[in-house]
Amino acid sequence: MTTAAPSSADLTVAFQQALRRELHVAGTAAGPRALMRAAANACRELLGQRWADTQAADASRGLKAEVRRVHYLSMEFLMGRALGNALAALKLDDALRAAFSAEGQALPDVLERENDAALGNGGLGRLAACFLDSFAELKLPSFGYGLRYQYGMFAQGVQGGRQVEAPDDWMALGNPWEVMRPELRYPVGFGGRVEVEASGARRWVPAEALVAQAYDFIVPAHHSERVSTLRQWHAQAEAPIDFAAFCRGDHQAAAAHRVAADALNWVLYPDDSTESGRVLRLKQEAFLVSASLQDLIARHLREFGSLEQLGRANAIHLNDTHPALAPAELMRLLLDEHGLSWDQAWTITRQAVSYTNHTLMPEALETWPVRLFEALLPRHLEIVYEINHRFLAQVKRQFPDDADLLRRVSLIDEGGQHGHFGGGERRVRMAALSIVASHRVNGVAALHSDLMVKTIFADYARLFPDRFHNVTNGVTPRRWLQQANPGLSTLLDGRIGTGWRHDLEELAKLKPLAADVRLGEQLLAVKRENKQRLADRIRRDLGMTVAVDSLFDVQIKRIHEYKRQLLNVLHVVARYQAIVADPRADWVPRTVVIAGKAASAYAMAKAIIQLTHDVGRVINSDPRVGDRLKLVFLPNYGVSLAETIIPAADLSEQISTAGTEASGTGNMKFALNGALTIGTWDGANIEMAQAFGEDNMFTFGLRTEQVDALKRVGYEPRHFVEQNAQLHAVMEAIARGDFSQGDSGRYRALVDRLLNQDVYLLMADFADYVKAQERVDALFRDRTAWAERVALNIAGMGMFSSDRTIQEYIDRVWSVKSLG
Ligand SMILES: *Cc1c(COP(=O)(O)O)cnc(C)c1O
Asked: Which SUPFAM superfamilies match (predicted)?
């Protein structure tokens, strides 16, 4: 069945053909962009063959298969670039390096021309992308399902120190990787009403009809010929232009429905501060779910001829609650379109569906107003009510005297004071729907899963004790070590062999070598090369010079108060003040690098970006400071920027308030690349410290129990400021306008918030954070000791491969035996 692996000769031929086409179109000599497109086209041809073979193999598995076909539903897939990965997976990078240099171009320059597919916001979306890689690597029959956002989230620029957002027009010049599937088109409806037929059957008659068109993106395995698929839906209007309106000369009216349909394709997370933004978001979620499930059912019927075994043969995984309409839509399709009974349909749904929770913050738990839900999805609302009715009846039988329990666990928030939005509006709770309809629910790190069943989902955990479990996140070693850090990869290959690429646990072989001074020097030499590359990038993008031998102290992630970039900036200000007070002391020079996007409606996050720039401007231009301290903000954080920054980091900042970061995956990428972590006892930091030894991480700050205790007795941030002269001076300087040209108003709200509420306990953790930073300095002075810690960090990171994560999902969620 499988075709022979393409040889480098095959690819070279395919590449030359594709290049001729490109040049024909361009009519000029081969620039790097034409080479990039030609290479992508050549790879896509070869991947297409692997795709067909993979699908044929999966389709013939039948019901004996132990692992169900997985349908991973996610509103985000933060893929980044594809060419470097495809070339490595097809083992054709050498052939193309030669082909490019024949055209006078270097491979890295060609790879740079590809735009990132930035179809995600942060960790949740990048996790989904790492999972696609591991699906292929573990030969898992699978589809990732997402939306084909034309403008991603947004492109971040900085003007006058403030974030500015623009559409990220990543497909402006086409997307050479996608394969349109003209035969895969499904209708998706909105609005309208529910009709009852003579038989009693209910049928939804939508008012608006769209068409979902499939586009596939193929993800190759690196150690087999298997591929996995990301199937992305593109929304189109069902009807062509309104011809009558067109003839009247009203061209806008003729196309209004097309624009409305196209709006679903524009951006991830339309600003939900307006009603029309919220409507659009709910439509996007429903659209993803409906198209994906219709596709699943069509495939299942093709392979099995009937629906009884659908839940036994297929898993439907919800990446957070964004696709939580899936159980309601699956019930609708099975009941209304395929005529199954409620009990049959519910059994199948419960078997198929599983759900991963990604946040404990109650305000981040998704709910939709019943009013809006009903207007867009009237039949789904009926089904949600029926699920709820049956669920609550069961709860009542189990706990007959607990009326408050019924209120708390209901799929409907009845409003009143308990709703987060006040106003008494009734809302559908998407997490509750996901839990009730799933056979497994997991958190993403040990602490998070533990808190999940003790806090937000405590009631459900009491009702369904066997449903909840933990699967700690991971990252793909192919992208985050092999591709991002070729220098370190080659060093590891020489020392421990190449097996780590497929089995990351092999990194443990480095442990007995950690004290080898020569290995230490080699690790530091690789790090220095990577730092030089980042320094070049900083010079190119910002016109700033940083000292390559300074300590590169890095925090890159979405800008959010809980992640505490602000605590980092406060430390930078404290260090600045100390340097100015005593410039002759023996300072360990530092370059602090921050990158990350702030959600467009999140004013506080934007203020943090502005403060970072204001502080950076003052420090970086103060002649008393020189190389001792620099603060750099790199705009437009994304996967490719992360691939440049992470291998260059000496220190990884993972400093969220304990109990707030579900897992983190950035923390894993840094440690894998030989950065030491300064971190709180939060998320996966804890399991990392346990894996490579707590002494090999700079931990600080209050732990979850201490955070809770402090809040219980009444936290007074001012108290911490008054007691700490250093912190007091930092807050004073910001409040006074030292960094805002004397404008004491600019950061008043920010300072007031820290002094009065400080929800994330920056003031309480500041002193311990500064002490941990002093331990960092001390160790950095001792090159040999630092390098040994680096080796021990890398050696302990074996379990944080997404291959291990996916194997756990297979064993406990997606295998047939997980159905009990
Ligand atoms: C890994 C990654 C993240 C997640 O980072 P955290 O530090 O875990 O929040 C976000 N964005 C990108 C581009 C990433 O690569």
From this structure: UDP-Glycosyltransferase/glycogen phosphorylase
Q: Which helix (H) or strand (E) holds 468?
A: strand 468-470
Whether residue 558 lies in the annotated active site: yes
- Note if 389 is an active site residue: no
Q: Which atom of ligand 1 is nearest to the CA of 643?
A: 15
* Strand ranges, E, within 191-338: 193-196, 202-205, 208-220, 227-237, 314-319
Ligand 1 centroid from CA 123, angstroms: 4
Q: What is the pLDDT of residue 421?
A: 52
Is residue 201 within 8 A of residue 182, CB to CB? The reply is no
**CB-based contacts of 75: which residues, under 8 Å, 6+ apart?**
146, 147, 268, 284, 285, 288, 319, 320, 322, 323
Tell me if 665 CB under 6 Å of ligand 1: yes
Return the amino acid letter for 779: L
Place of tokens 């958190």: 443
Q: Where are the beta strands (DSSP E) in 278-432?
A: 314-319, 353-356, 367-369, 412-413, 427-429
Q: Which residue has the tokens 């993979």?
A: 54
Number of other CB atoms surrounding residue 732 within 10 Å: 13
Q: Is residue 527 among the annotated active site residues? A: no
Mean pLDDT by 10 residues, the chain (820 residues): 62 84 74 92 93 96 90 98 96 91 93 95 97 98 98 97 97 95 98 94 95 98 97 95 94 94 92 88 98 98 96 97 98 97 98 97 92 98 98 97 97 75 82 98 98 97 97 98 98 98 98 98 98 98 98 98 98 98 97 97 97 98 97 98 98 98 98 98 98 98 98 98 98 98 97 98 98 98 98 98 98 91
> For residues 811 and 444, what is the distance between their CA atoms, to the nearest angstrom?
16
CA distance 100 to 83: 13
Residue type, 278: R
Beta bridge partners, 231, equal 145, 216
Rounded (to 5) percent helix, strand, coil in the chain: 55, 15, 30
Q: Which runs of consecutive H residues, i.e. helices, occur in 442-516?
A: 446-454, 458-463, 477, 486-496
**Cα–Cα distance between 172 and 434 in angstroms, integer?**
37
- Domain covering 477-800, topology: Rossmann fold (3.40.50)
User: For 324, what's the count of Cα atoms within 13 Å in the CB-facing half-sphere?
Assistant: 27
Q: Is the CB of 639 under 6 A from ligand 1?
A: yes
Tokens of 528: 């220095």
The catalytic position among 380, 531, 669, 753 is 669
**Helix 32-59 crosses helix 93-102 at what angle (to 10 degrees)?**
150
Determine whether the shortest distance from the Cβ of 126 to ligand 1 is under 6 A.
yes
Residue 240 CA, chain-centre distance (Å), reads 36
**Residue 225 main-chain phi, psi, to 5 deg:** -90, 5
Q: Which of 556, 565, 641, 682 to mutate to test the pocket of ligand 1 (most atoms within 8 A of CB)?
A: 556
474 Cβ closer than 6 Å to some ligand 1 atom: no
Looking at residue 700, its amino acid is F
Cβ atoms of 803 and 504 within 8 Å: the answer is yes
Ligand 1 pocket, mutate which of 652, 665, 672 (most atoms under 8 A from CB):
665
Atom 6 in ligand 1: residue holding the nearest Cα: 666
Alpha carbon distance 250, 246 (integer Å)? 5
Nearest protein Cα to ligand 1, atom 9: 557
Residue 557 is among the residues annotated as catalytic for this protein: yes
Amino acid at 610: Q
Nearest atom (ligand 1) to Cα of 118? 13
Q: Domain segments of the chain: what residues?
A: 68-81+116-472, 477-800
Decide: pTM greater than 0.90: yes
Interatomic CA distance for residues 516 and 820, integer angstroms: 50
Residues 6+ apart with CB under 8 A from 296: 71, 143, 314, 316
**The domain made up of 68-81+116-472 is a member of CATH 3.40.50.2000:** yes
Q: Are 302 and 362 contacting, i.e. CB atoms less than 8 angstroms apart?
A: no
The pLDDT score that the predictor gives to residue 63 is: 83
